[in-house]
Inverse folding.
């Protein structure tokens, strides 16, 4: 963050600095347990907790300033660095907008039903190979995470890459005045979270807010392989660049192959790059990253080198081999039918002399598509030709039903919970086997993946 005097922060957010302080703010935190010396602590109010209860702990941990609302002005009166504001979250948003204006980086924003975090990571790696780049940690992609990300910018930052999530119409539009992206990437539009949006049309409308919010100088980077995304061209006030497997896309590969580990290898002109994560579905994510990098001015070969070295966000196609020789593909961060089908295809593409197992959990937020969505995944198991599946929890039982109905030739096992599933799969696998772990965040299948690797492993 740009170092700022506490008084300067008060001026920026329009707050009242009750107790004078000449100390400087060098970071922002919303968690008193993770406060670093020099942080501004922002107490957020939720359904079950009030961050104001932790202001004293934050100051004791080293926070040199904090925000508080009028109802807690007594904190500012007796603790150093207290700034009284109408609403701490609104004040954080105002501070973030000021930092964005002060640093004035090129802002690349990513949204979509699937692939947001991966595309964000790949784009940051591709651009970061040549420019000083900041990306939001993990999935800091909402009205809280995005301002926290903006506060990470420094005077040296040239490019910001961030993903934007949406739980409804208007969510993306709400953060656009603060973020003001120069480049907008839309990866895919599908039925993820359809239970919250109500229809695919509503999802299209919500994701399109990112494109509509561009200025005339902005560039929309759209997936030509997905009609719902390509259709957003008409909603862009600025230039449009398309990417995809189709030759009609502005950026498309001349050749795509898959190696023994399931990683796609792309050739575009004279540049060849092996993607750092397995799965053909990552081809589109990588093309989006390369397109954004070229718009920013990064040479394609340099961007490709950055792509090849890109890191992996936690629980997203993390491939690890245990000390016992079992390969675990941990994609447990979240799931919907489209991403789960892609993950199953990735599992099937990994060459091994052992067995291929999928441990699949419930996919949330599908609304009236819950049953059909789970059956679709089960049916795809039969097409993929893997060796077995462990379905976790009764609410995911339609996966097993769909597999049986489609004539899946492998073993179908059902477990009541994550603990039973862990015991089941641990008793089945041996050296050389590959296990995909995939489910919605609420299922907690990362615990199972960790148990399979608890004896150690290597990337």
């Amino acid at each position: 963050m740009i170092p700022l005097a506490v008084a300067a922060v008060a001026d920026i957010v329009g707050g009242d600095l009750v107790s004078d302080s000449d100390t400087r703010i060098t970071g922002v935190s919303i968690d008193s347990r993770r406060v670093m010396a020099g942080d501004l602590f922002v107490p957020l109010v939720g359904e079950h907790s009030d961050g104001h209860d932790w202001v004293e702990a934050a100051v004791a941990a080293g926070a040199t300033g904090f925000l508080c609302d009028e109802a807690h002005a007594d904190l500012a009166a007796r603790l150093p660095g207290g700034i009284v504001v109408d609403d701490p979250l609104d004040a954080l948003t105002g501070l973030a907008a000021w930092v964005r204006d002060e640093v004035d980086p090129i802002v690349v924003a990513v949204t979509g039903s699937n692939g947001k975090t991966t595309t964000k990571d790949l784009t940051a790696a591709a651009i970061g190979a040549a420019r000083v780049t900041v990306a939001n940690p993990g999935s800091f992609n909402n009205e809280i995470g995005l301002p926290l990300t903006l506060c990470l910018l420094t005077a040296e930052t040239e490019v910001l890459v961030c993903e934007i999530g949406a739980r409804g119409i208007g969510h993306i539009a709400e953060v656009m005045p603060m973020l003001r992206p120069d480049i907008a990437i839309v990866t895919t539009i599908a039925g993820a979270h359809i239970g919250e949006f109500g229809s695919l049309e509503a999802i299209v409308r919500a994701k399109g807010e990112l494109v509509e919010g561009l200025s005339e100088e902005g560039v929309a980077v759209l997936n030509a392989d997905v009609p719902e995304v390509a259709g957003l061209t008409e909603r862009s006030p600025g230039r449009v660049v398309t990417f995809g497997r189709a030759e009609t896309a502005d950026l498309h590969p001349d050749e795509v192959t898959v190696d023994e580990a399931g990683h796609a290898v792309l050739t575009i002109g004279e540049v060849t790059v092996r993607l750092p994560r397995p799965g053909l579905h990552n081809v589109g994510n990588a093309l989006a990253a390369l397109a954004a990098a070229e718009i920013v001015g990064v040479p394609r070969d340099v961007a490709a080198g950055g792509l090849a070295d890109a890191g992996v966000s936690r629980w997203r196609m993390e491939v690890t081999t245990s000390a016992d020789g079992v390969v675990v593909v941990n994609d447990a961060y979240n799931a919907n039918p489209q991403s789960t089908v892609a993950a199953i295809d990735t599992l099937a593409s990994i060459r091994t002399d052992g067995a291929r197992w999928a441990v699949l959990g419930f996919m949330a937020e599908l609304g009236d598509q819950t049953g059909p969505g789970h059956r679709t995944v089960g049916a795809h198991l039969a097409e993929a030709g893997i060796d077995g599946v462990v379905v976790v929890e009764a609410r995911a039982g339609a996966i097993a039903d769909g597999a049986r109905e489609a004539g899946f030739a492998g073993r179908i096992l059902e477990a009541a919970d994550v603990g039973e599933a862990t015991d089941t799969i641990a008793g089945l696998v041996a050296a050389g086997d590959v296990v995909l772990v995939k489910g919605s965040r609420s299922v907690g299948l990362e615990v199972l993946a960790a148990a399979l690797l608890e004896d150690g492993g290597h990337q």
Summary: The two ends are 32 Å apart (CA to CA). The chain has three domains: 4-94, 104-308, 318-453.
